Every structure is written in C-alpha cells, then in structure tokens.
Amino acid sequence: MSEVSVPNDVTLMEKVVNLSKRRGFVFPSAEIYGGFRSTYDYGPIGVQLLRNVKDAWWRSMVQMRDDVVGLDAAILSPPAIWEASGHLKNFTDPLVDCRQCRERYREDQLEDPTTCPGCGGKGTFTEARNFNLMFKTHAGPVESDAAVAYLRPETAQGMFVNFSNVLQASRKKPPFGIAQIGKSFRNEITPGNFVFRTREFEQMELEFFVPPEEAQQWYEYWCRTRYQWYVDLGIPESKLRMRPHDPDELSHYSSGTSDVEFLFPWGWGELEGVANRGDYDLTQHATHSGERLDYFDQATNTRYVPHVIEPAAGATRTMMAFLLAAYDEEEVRGETRTVLRLHPRLAPYKVAVLPLSKKDDLMPMAREVLALLQPHVMCDFDETQAIGRRYRRQDELGTPFCVTIDFDSLTDQSVTVRERDTMDQVRVPVADLVAHLLPRLA
Ligand code: ATP
What we know:
single chain, alpha+beta, BirA Bifunctional Protein, domain 2, Rossmann fold, 2 domains, 7-stranded mixed beta sheet, 5-stranded mixed beta sheet, 13 helices, 31% helix, 30% strand, disordered N terminus, binds adenosine-5'-triphosphate
C-alpha cells in the first residue's frame, strides 16, 4: 500500500462534487426539470452527514454545557424585526450589470471593478446599486403591504426577540446563551462553488449574553472554542485559520470579529464568524418594540443591557469543508481506493453489515447482527456484489467499520470487523460486538 499524491485542488473539487452525486450526498435540485440554479437537495447519505454536523454542534454548544439553551424560531417574520435589526436598510450587496454580456456581479467581489470577468469588456459596468438580499413574500391571500413577510436571512434575530421569554422560562442569567440551528435564506447575487454559497442554507448560531465588562474575555473564549471544534472533528490545522477582521471590515456596532476560515480549493473561505456585537441588538429591539430587553442583577442591584458574543456558522458550508478535508485516494494493490476519512461522529453510517454471500443460510444471522447494532448506531446493510466492491463503496461513504458475516460465523458465532482507514481486520465474537465498536465510534 503506498500513498499517491492528494489530488490537486481543482480536481479535488470535481471529485467531491461527483462523489456527492454518485453516492447520494448532494443532488442538484429539480434535476428532472433541468435543475434550479445553485439549489441542492441532500440525498440519503448527505442528510445523515448534515444531521451529524448539526448534532456535533448541538452536542458541544448545548448538551455539554449548562449555560446554553436551545430555540427554534419561525422562519417567516414580520418587517418590524428587520427594520429594527437594520437588515431592511443595510443587508445589501452592491450589484453591477455588464451592459455588453448582461452578466451580473457583486462589485465587492470583482478583482478589477472596471473589467467584466465574463466578456472582458472595459468600462461596461452599470453604476452599482444596492440590492437587498432578503426574500420578501406575503403572508395570507392578500398581497398588500400589511401582509409583507420576510424569510429570515439569519437565525440570530429569533434569539434576540425571544431574549426575555427565554430568560424567564429558563431562569438563566448572564453569562448565558441561546443556540439555534435552522434554515436561512439570502437572495445571493452570485451563488456558487457547490454548496458554499446558496440562496437557501442552514446556519448554526449562538447568541451569548454577557455582562458588558466580560465581553472581551468571552469573545476570546468563543474564538478559541469554535476553532477547536473544527480541529476536534478532523479538519487539519494546515487548512484552518482564524482571521481577525481589519477595523474597516467591522460592522459599526462590532468591536471585534474573527472568521474561522477553511482552505477551499479556490482559496481561504469563511466557515464561521465570531463577533463581539456589544449591546446593539438588544438595544435596537428594545427601542423599536418598546419592550425592556435588559437584565436586573439582584446580587448587585443593577440593571444592564447584556453584550452579545455571536459565533455564527453555516451547517451546509461546513459539511462541504468536512467532505473536502476527508477526501483521500491511495493505491492499494495496483488500484486506487477512494476513502472519506470522516471523523466517526460525522460519518453517515457508523457500521455496514455485510453478509459474505447472499446465500440463504447467512441472511438470518446477518439480520440478527444488524438488529443488534441498529439501536446503537446508524447502519447500512448490503448483500449485493463481491465483498471487495462493497468495502470500496463503504470507504467512499466514510463508514468507519464493516462487519462481515461469513460461513465460519455460523459455527464460531464471530464476525470480521474491518476498519476503514487501516483496512485491518479482526475477528470479534458477536456477543462482544457492541462493546468492541461503540468506544471506537465516540
Ligand atoms: P459571506 O461573507 O460568505 O457572504 P457572511 O459573512 O455574510 O458570509 P454571516 O452572515 O456571518 O455570513 O453568516 C454566518 C455563516 O453562515 C457564514 O460563515 C457561512 O458559513 C454561512 N453562510 C452565510 N451565507 C451563506 C450562503 N449564502 N450559503 C451558505 N452558507 C452561508
């Protein structure tokens, strides 16, 4: 077995996109109707991977802490929220059209704002106009102004407008946080790079409310903690960096923002932003709604508006980073083996149960082994094709363990456990199988 070089970055992207389609991670949306630009559906394997990314986040941000609680707020929201948050006025990108080829671009993403990257036209761009990224719709049958609603462009505002509700219901006090995972929608001018930038995507956001004097220390804490989350789930540090924003990049209310960035095939790109937002959000909503959004500290007899530290990550974008980082090829006995070296916690299937042959006598035992494992972990069951091809398929899905039931199994009540990364095989009694596998999947 020898290493072949990791595919160069352009082909890496193509290979991951192809694998995603072929193995059921991500499909182009509405494909039978010719597709719907930059919209994707998550297939049988992708839905598991995406769910595992979200579960890993929820586990670390909510389950493993006693200072964060969860929320699932509505996607449809009234204009008042976006008026107060500033999104109606400021959530815009500068849009330019090329008069020659009619392509549209985000002016701030052009390498040379005087030259069209599509047709090479010089000075062919229109004046930039600010284009609001929010999707606007109408709630109810009448398309009047009174019925206007927006699809949320971020999950964060749901946490701010529920600040008092959560405070009262959970009996938490600052420092404490509200976490949410859910869909967000942005009418991006230039979606692309597979699921990196789409108009419909999923976010994982925490709003962490702290006494003002503790804001800086919590900001630093969350920068460290969030960076480490990606490392712990297997992103190599050579492909990960924390990039503090320059002062001119900062939003007017932010006293510090750092992005966790991943080295995508086309260069560094943001996975998550960690921002010190001050008291901007609660103050805005308090002013606009007339409701008090502050905290009365009985211990010190003082009332204050908590400051907010916000780690805001993209679930779908992060899933793509995990896929790119896990993709590997190596040569095994003259053949190329493709393997997704996903962290076991992220792997769509943890175990594949494979009866060596479809012969009737192996099936009852194989089904018993499957039933033994299913209550513990997500399993695949595959009885078709030669065993070697089935192993390769599981390698491409990132399945950490294959359990093979062969004819000896019927007499020795043992199975062969094959490990994905080393391809080592060990014989394990069925009675010990759960105890053997579970610690290796944590
Ligand atoms: P970008 O600069 O890439 O447009 P942003 O700074 O506007 O992103 P935030 O508003 O900070 O992004 O959102 C937090 C996270 O949500 C991002 O780090 C990213 O992972 C994810 N995200 C934002 N927009 C999209 C999108 N259009 N498609 C997929 N994920 C997105």
